[in-house]
Amino acid sequence: MPPLGERGLIILYQDEFMKNKPLILGHRGYRSRFPENTMLSFAKAVEYGADGIECDIQKTSDCRYIVFHDDELSRITGHSGYVKDVNFDELSGLDAGMGERIPDINSFLNSLHGHRLRNIELKVETITHDDFSAIDSAVDHSGFKNDVLISSFHHDLLPQYKEAGYRTGLLFDAEYMQDNKISALVKVFRYKPFSVNLPAAVFSGNVSLSARMFLAVIKILGVKTVYWTVNTGEQFNSVKDNAYAVITDNVELMVSLRDKD
User: Fold this and answer.
1) Which residues pair with 251 in a beta bridge?
2) CA end-to-end distance (rounded Å), the chain
3) Whose CA, among 52, 79, 93, 201, lies 20 to 30 Å from 212?
């Protein structure tokens, strides 16, 4: 093995230093303090130390891609109706909280100013295989493709993105992971993702033997672990040693816990 040299030693030092330092991703921005999935929420998450943002993409009736979690409008805007039945101009006039508007994917991608991780969840209520080209074009135009992680609970959506050079994440919910860890591993072997995006509720606290075994296999395979939604010190301390990133509503708390060691 050739000598590492000064630059190689610095890289090794950085890797060792960051080994137990997961990225902090604001869940829909800084959700506990600001309206979720809004430009204000994204900006405040970064201001308070987040390394990136997790957000959700839905499609409107006129095939515009918006950053919005629900398929129905009432929880966020107070207006009834479904995203798929309303056009972008109508949606952009609605109040998403504190006077904030619902942003489109282009506004989100360009809001973080630099190389910060953008974890985009494709929402299965409105996003299909046919939306790949438009979403790919938006990301490519932004120039931040290398900073994007595409995730979804609908795993069949992801191969197109992986083939196009994106990092992809298999999202699993808590109910599924309680009893289907072997099936989840089969999916990992099938889809070969960059990451598995796991519910912190299953992998923190009193972690079962099967969960620990699942994590051991994932580590051997070189697949990263991203945990959602990590909101307490107990949860963070349970997952931090093998987390590539944690998704949180409480950005300041997670940043302080991550950086105190």
Assistant:
1) none
2) 33
3) 52
Instruction: For each of the domains in the chain, give its residue range(s) and CATH number, in order of start.
Output: 21-259 (3.20.20.190)
Residue 143 CB contacts under 8 Å (≥ 6 apart), including other chains: none
**Do the strands 224-228 and 117-122 form a parallel or antiparallel pair, or are they unpaired?**
unpaired
Answer whether 90's CB lies under 8 Å from 26's CB: no
CA-based torsion, 144, 244, 3, 8: positive or negative = positive
What's the one-letter identity of residue 157?
L
Residues whose CB is less than 8 angstroms from the CB of residue 249 and which lie 6 or more positions away in sequence, other chains included:
27, 30, 31, 32, 229, 231
Whether this model's pTM surpasses 0.85: yes
11 has a pLDDT exceeding 70: no
Evaluate whether 30 touches 50 at the Cβ level (below 8 Å): yes
User: Which residues form the catalytic set?
Assistant: 27, 69
